[in-house]
Write a structure and sequence with these properties.
Elements lengths: L7 E3 L6 H8 L5 E6 L5 E5 L6 E5 L8 E6 L4 H11 L3 E9 L5 E9 L16 H7 L1 H36 L12 H16 L12
Parallel strand pairs: 1-7
Antiparallel strand pairs: 1-5, 2-5, 3-4, 6-7
């Protein structure tokens, strides 16, 4: 799913402005939003953890879940959020009620069904206020760690790209003149490679670690 085309509804630790700032390096635009009970989901505490899971209710009614709707997110913001959430969740699309009771289609990180056993037999509701007191400090430290790793990885990826471009320039140096045998089309191609790599580090374009 392309997260860039819709806002993200967050219902757990990312509701904390302090944590979001630690993760994203800025405060993303947000507003209060509600996932209605009719959607059929519950917010439960993951056993042994401080964070919640959002999972479809199979034996009763869902609950109205108050969260935050994050918008105007950059490509870097989205990558950081995905890295922070980890592989216990998958992304789906749900309709939530945004500001002024306007229905909004939002991306939501849902708990994987095959991990339902980690929520306990009945499941304990997750309380944001309690988490702010008991778990915020540890979560903020984790968010900063995720951001730090992301920044380092991005810098290393740029260095690999720069080294590769330098190597390619060296291969076309005119031995007589000592000047690169570039024309405008060559420079445009290099610019496009750099831009593609910047937007999507996993792209085959400019990704020199993959065959």
């Amino acid at each position: 799913m392309d997260l860039s085309i819709r806002p993200i509804f967050v219902y757990g630790t990312l509701m904390s402005a302090e944590l979001r700032s630690a993760l994203l390096g800025r405060e993303a635009p947000c507003c209060t939003a509600v996932l209605p009970a009719s959607a059929g989901y519950r917010r439960l505490t993951v056993n042994g953890e401080g964070y919640p899971a959002l999972i479809r209710e199979t034996q009763g009614e869902g609950q109205a879940i108050v969260g935050q709707l994050l918008s105007a997110l950059t490509a870097d913001d989205l990558k950081l959020i995905v890295e922070y959430e980890g592989d216990e969740y998958f992304v789906s699309t749900l309709k939530v009620m945004g500001s002024e009771s306007v229905e909004v289609e939002a991306a939501v990180f849902l708990w994987k069904e095959d991990l339902r056993s980690r929520l306990g037999h009945k499941g304990m509701p997750w309380d944001f206020s309690e988490w702010l007191t008991m778990g915020l400090e540890e979560a903020v430290a984790e968010a900063r760690s995720v951001r730090s790793k992301h920044v380092i990885d991005k810098a290393e990826q740029r260095l690999r790209l720069a080294d590769r471009v330098d190597d390619e320039i060296g291969e076309v140096i005119n031995a007589d003149s000592g000047k690169p045998a570039w024309d405008d089309e060559d420079n445009l191609l290099l610019s496009r490679i750099a831009l593609a790599c910047e937007r999507d580090p996993n792209s085959r374009v400019g990704n020199y670690d993959k065959p």
